[in-house]
Amino acid sequence: MTAGIRHAGWWAGIALAVSIAFVAGYAADWVGASLLGFKTSPISAIMMAIIIGMIVANTVRVPPAWRSGLVFCTSAILRIGIMLLGIRLSLLSAGQFTLVALPFVLTAIVVGLITVGLLGRRMGLSKQLSGLIAVGTSICGCTAIVAVAPLIEADESEVSYAIACITVFGLAAMFAYPLLAHYAFANDPALAGLFLGTSIHETAQVAGAGMMYEAQYNAPVALELATVTKLVRNLSMIAVIPLVGFLYGAERSASESGKINYLAMVPWFIVGFALMSALRTIGDSSDQPFGILQPEQWNRLVAILRDLAEHCLLIAMAAVGLTSMFAGLRRIGLRPFALGLFAALLVGGVSFTMVALFAPRLMAMAG
Asked: What angle do CA 363, 364, 367 make, to 5 degrees?
């Protein structure tokens, strides 16, 4: 990391993402208000940041040395933004959301792992590639793929194919699912957030979809519930990845590669999210937060942290666009591509059906 920070390309990649994030805010207002004639732009800055980033990445040659800075934005800055989102929720609200989200998350994971794996073998794909696509779609995208790959002894090409599938269909879902969620759950944005959190693959993609929904439909609860739901999926790796190793692992001799580092499966930003929620809970529980702040000072601090979280996520989404290359589609191949499409539609369909049928009653019981 230190060498990367000293490298000029690292700074250039971050500067490019920040610049596109800055331009996207003005572009969203211009397109919605000036071009389309709306009083308030319905176009999300997040959407514009991703679109502009993808256009730049696929029309202009971004120097390879800049990639390290872009990766920093899609990893560290994204996770800082998610951590800071915890300031929006008290522990009580976050805990209620977690209990509601858990059965939907588990159902989507079980259906995805079993069905996608079986279909992949029927299509003649390797057990490892089938497992990587299944776990990436069902749990948490690239993070799950990278965590599982050594356990099942997947090779580099299989990891690359799986990540390409997750990226392509996750980006498509990020744009399409907020519209579907609003059409189906317009009267209850919490249900929309639950659907987004259980159906979209990557943490970055869920954050982007939730922010689009919030911006376009003025529904912050959708982003909050989508974020908590996605964090529940991330934590489920601890229990699910050993099962994945059993289902999709090749025959191995006893070696270090079979060991699982459970501590490494608890992302630091999930802990940070909980700590920020605890901070909000403590601050809101007193007439003089922490014994030193006035209520208006505390509210201003909360607003600053919320704005900082949104700016971090906007920069991360610009970097997501900048690292999305259309040329990757050609490298996926037809059968893995078809399995990835089926997996995305399966998890999305199961999530949508479960939320539509059972979530309203669970929400009422939790509330």
From this structure: 80
CB atoms under 10 Å from CB of 127, counted, come to: 17
Which parts of the chain register pLDDT below 50? 1, 4, 251-257
pLDDT per position as a tens digit, 146-165: 667 777 877 766 776 787 78
Tell me the C-alpha distance between 303 and 326, whole Å.
Answer: 38
Distance (Å, whole) CA 148 – CA 142: 10
* Inside any domain, residue 264: yes
| Closest to 247 in 3D by CA, of 109, 155, 347, 101 | 109
Q: How many domains does the chain have?
A: 1
Host domain of residue 316: 80-366
> Encoding tokens for residue 216?
């376009």
Q: Which residue in 81, 83, 84, 63 sits closest to 73, CA to CA?
A: 81
Give per-residue burial for 112-125: e unless 16+ CB within 10 Å, then b: bbebbbebbeeeeb
Q: Is residue 160 part of a domain?
A: yes
Does 226 reside within a domain? yes
Whole-model pTM? 0.73
Cβ atoms 196, 178 nearer than 8 A: yes
Contact 339, 123 (CB under 8 A): yes
User: pLDDT for 48-101, tens place per residue?
Assistant: 887 888 889 888 888 989 999 998 998 889 889 888 888 877 777 677 778 888
Residue 224, in any domain of the structure: yes
pLDDT tens track for 80-90: 988 888 887 77
**Under a CB-based contact definition with an 8 Å cutoff, are residues 355 and 191 in contact?**
yes
- Report the candidate in 328, 340, 333 with the shortest Cα–Cα distance to residue 165: 340
